[in-house]
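User: Batch of two.

Assistant: Item 1 of 2:
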Amino acid sequence: MLRTQMRFAVIALLIQLGMAANHTVGGSSGWDTSGNPEAWASAQTFVVGDNLFFQFTPNHDVLEVSKADYDTCSTSNPTQTYSSSPVVIPLSSPGKRCFICGTAGHCGQGMKIEVDTLASSSPPSASPAPPPTSSPAPPVTPPSSSTPPEASPSPNSAPTSPSTPTSSPAPSSNGPSVESPTSSPPPSPSSANKGSFRASLVMGFGFIMTILLAL
């Protein structure tokens, strides 16, 4: 359990270090009067988790001071003093912090920075624009199809009367009459249905008995 917690702590630390930005104060000139650290700081964006790197020669140092001492370049009441290079100062909370060089005259020459640390680097989310209102399209009128009127039957054409079939003469009654052979009537359909029903009943009963014996 302890090893798992240690792994999570190390992973969280690595993620935080990977997301943090390391700012070398003064850029390529470093913390020196040859550059312009004050102008460099005003062009940077600092976020919680970033780090300030001060690199300087032995004739310089770093003092963290209040805003009033920053404005007047006063070195008499620093909150922190760093005299050995390099110096790494983590920006662990949002807000403004002020740093100057404690060597006489260097703060007035531009060796001073004011750092405004932001809580998050993500820009504020813009409110979604309202969807454009579209006017309803006019209804499409289908083309009218002109159907020609049905032609009424002419009154002159009268329906033809069906022709009367001619009847053939009846056979003479003098000849011998031929009697048709008598055929036996077909079996009643009810008797066939009764036979098939009995066969189905016997088969179903046998199937049920087979299942009962198998159990």
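Item 2 of 2:
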Amino acid sequence: MVTFNVETDLDLANGACREITEIILDECEPMFLLSALIVELKYPPTYILVKMDHTKAVQLEGLEKDVLLLVPLKRTFTIVHGKGLKTNRRRQPPITQAYSFTDYRSQGRTISHCIVDIATPPGGGLTPFNMYVALS
């Protein structure tokens, strides 16, 4: 799932769920065994190839139709640390695993397979509308 409005005109927007077709690692990344169950990277990937359902982007030479490059974004943010402020910088792809999302996020999506939890949430507040949105 995309976590930032990267390029809304190309459907690379916050909440977009797409298929990753390939991850191109940083050239400084140490080698690892492909059979390893867990791999911890030392650097963000150089870029990620993402297969879109559709896009207005021109097809890039050497890539299949509807595949786009997603590059890491650089962000700076400041937090309160003790009695002072600390500025942090990070560089990472604007994506996360999409294993669950709210009924609000599911609106307007076609989801081929899903499990819908319609139990009353711990904080209450589940309405028939929430169930309708999740199941429609």
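The first strand starts at residue 19 and ends at 24.
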